[in-house]
Amino acid sequence: MILSMTGFGKSVAEIEGKKLNIEIRTLNSKQLDLNIRMCRLLKDKEVDIRSIVTRELQRGKVDVAIYFDNKEDATNISINKALLEKYFNELKSISAEIKNDFPTDYFSLASRMPDVLATGDEILADEHWHNLLKSFDDALKQVNTFRKEEGKILGNDIKQRVNLILKHLESIAPFEKERIEIIKTRLHKDLEEFVNKENIDANRFEQELIYYIDKIDITEEKIRLQKHCNYFIDTMKQPEANGRKLGFITQEMGREINTIGSKANDADIQKIVVQMKDELEKIKEQLLNIL
């Protein structure tokens, strides 16, 4: 099955009458690159959330955001007045000692010092955690649905390009037959230019010709390329995601295409090889977004 690494899902969980928004966005990446931003209420649940995302999404650049609406902020913020005053006095005293003549907003500096702003230690009840998990699962399902739908589009495009490579491969056959006769005629003509016709050993010439033609024969490469293409399409039909495996198969396809091009010794065949390379590069580009 072809699954895209691009996806999006969104859901809302109700916690004590307040709306907790859940958004999940995914893009392509070689590994799982997970970034989670969430409210302080869930800071103890990050490991659980990471485990769920890793299991469900497997790979890709994943951004998870879990937050309350601004008007429904669930955190209780308080100011440590004694600590704020201590920071303020210390900063002012140090500034006087070093004879700092520049205007300084000591209050602003002190308010940003550690532990001046404190939040209440809220604990997420089990009931609310289960509600959150249900909503989180809904968002993940939306992501996977998105991935499947886009995967179908990508899969159809990739399959068409593989079939084009097979079609180009078939079109080599007539040029391949002509190539042998052209090579034979050219070698015989070149030999006659440098050696008297009477001194040419016909049997030796045929042996050398067979040896040379065998070296530039592309039959095996054509067979292997066809098998790789068929294997690629079969792998696309498998139920599990096989993006990496498909990438490895394209490497093998590329090797055979390159070998055909290097052995071709024929302008028409090399033009076809260029067309196959072009389709293969487009397949590789699409595979970058396949799970």
Present the secondary structure layout:
Elements: E1 7-15, E2 18-27, E3 32-38, H1 46-57, E4 60-68, E5 77-79, H2 81-97, H3 106-111, E6 117-119, H4 126-170, H5 172-194, H6 202-215, H7 219-237, H8 243-264, H9 267-287
Parallel strand pairs: 3-4
Antiparallel strand pairs: 1-2, 2-4, 5-6
Helix pairs in contact: 4-7, 4-9, 7-8, 8-9
Describe it.
The chain is an alpha+beta fold. It folds into three domains: 7-74 and 125-147, Ribosomal Protein S5, domain 2 (2-Layer Sandwich), CATH 3.30.230; 77-119, no CATH class; 148-287. The protein is 62% helix and 14% strand. It contains nine helices and six strands; from the N terminus they run βββαββααβαααααα. Strands 1-2-4-3 form a four-stranded mixed beta sheet. A two-stranded antiparallel sheet has the order 5-6. Strand 3 (32-38), helix 1 and strand 4 form a beta-alpha-beta unit. Helix 4 (126-170) packs antiparallel against helix 7, helix 7 packs antiparallel against helix 8 and helix 8 runs antiparallel to helix 9. The termini are close together. The model has no long low-confidence stretch (mean pLDDT 84).
Largest sheet: 4 strands, mixed
Report strand order across the widest sheet.
1-2-4-3
Shape: elongated
Strand content: 5-15%
Total domains = 3
Total number of strands: 6
Mean pLDDT: 84
Low-confidence stretches: none
Helix proportion range: 55-70%
By secondary-structure content and strand pairing, the structural class works out as alpha+beta
Give the termini separation: 9 Å
- Return the string of H and E elements: EEEHEEHHEHHHHHH
Radius of gyration: 34 Å
| SS element count, helices | 9
